[in-house]
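Per your request, structure below.
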C-alpha cells in the first residue's frame, strides 16, 4: 500500500497560519520538495485548493515574474515544484466542490476514496494540506508520515495544525535536520491511536 505523507511548515507553537489565516513568516515553500521523486500523486483539501492552484499556476506560467500572492520572484525549487504540479495528478477531498478547473485534478468525496487511492499501484501520495484535511486523515488513521519544517517563531493567535484533531496519535521520530534560518526539519512515522 502506498504511504500518505503530509508535509507542513509550522511555527514552534504548532501554527500553520497567523490571525489572518496565512503564514506570512514563510519565505519560500520549498522545504518538502525533495519528496517529489518519492510521490506521483497529491491530495489536498477544498479550503487549500484555490490558493494552491493559483500560486503554482502563476509560477508555472510566468516563472521569471514575481508571484501575485507574495510579490517575490519564485525560487528555483519553487519553479521545479510548479512543473511537478502541472504534470502530477491531484485529488481534492471535498463534499462541497462541484468542479475543479486545473488539469489532472479530480474530486474525491469520502475517506473510503482516499483509502482506495492508497491501495492503487504507484509511488507514495503527498498530502499537501491544509489543517482540516490533515487532522481528519490523521484521525482516520490514513496518514503514514509527517514531515514538519518548524520555524523558530511563536505565532500566538492563529491556525493550529492539529487544532481539529480529535484523537491522540503516537509518533516515531525518523529524522531530524537543521535547516536554514534556525528551522528544524522533523520526519515522524505516524502510529496507531495512543492511550
Amino acid at each position: 500500500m502506498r504511504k500518505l505523507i503530509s508535509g507542513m511548515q509550522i511555527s514552534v507553537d504548532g501554527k500553520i497560519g497567523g490571525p489572518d489565516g496565512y503564514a506570512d513568516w514563510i519565505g519560500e515553500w520549498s522545504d518538502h520538495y525533495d519528496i517529489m521523486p518519492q510521490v506521483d500523486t497529491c491530495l489536498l483539501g477544498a479550503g487549500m485548493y484555490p490558493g494552491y492552484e493559483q500560486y503554482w499556476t502563476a509560477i508555472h506560467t510566468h516563472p521569471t515574474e514575481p508571484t501575485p500572492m507574495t510579490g517575490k520572484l519564485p525560487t528555483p525549487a519553487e519553479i521545479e515544484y510548479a512543473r511537478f504540479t502541472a504534470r502530477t495528478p491531484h485529488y481534492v477531498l471535498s463534499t462541497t466542490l462541484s468542479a475543479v478547473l486545473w488539469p489532472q485534478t479530480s474530486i474525491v468525496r469520502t475517506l473510503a476514496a482516499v483509502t482506495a487511492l492508497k491501495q492503487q499501484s504507484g509511488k507514495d501520495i503527498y498530502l499537501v494540506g491544509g489543517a482540516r484535511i490533515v487532522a481528519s486523515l490523521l484521525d482516520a488513521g490514513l496518514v503514514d508520515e509527517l514531515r514538519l519544517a518548524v520555524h523558530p517563531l511563536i505565532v500566538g493567535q492563529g491556525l493550529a495544525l492539529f487544532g481539529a484533531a480529535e484523537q491522540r496519535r503516537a509518533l516515531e521520530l525518523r529524522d531530524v535536520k537543521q535547516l536554514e534560518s534556525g528551522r528544524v526539519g522533523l520526519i515522524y512515522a505516524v502510529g496507531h491511536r495512543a492511550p
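The CA atoms of residues 19 and 158 lie 4 Å apart.

Regards,
D.
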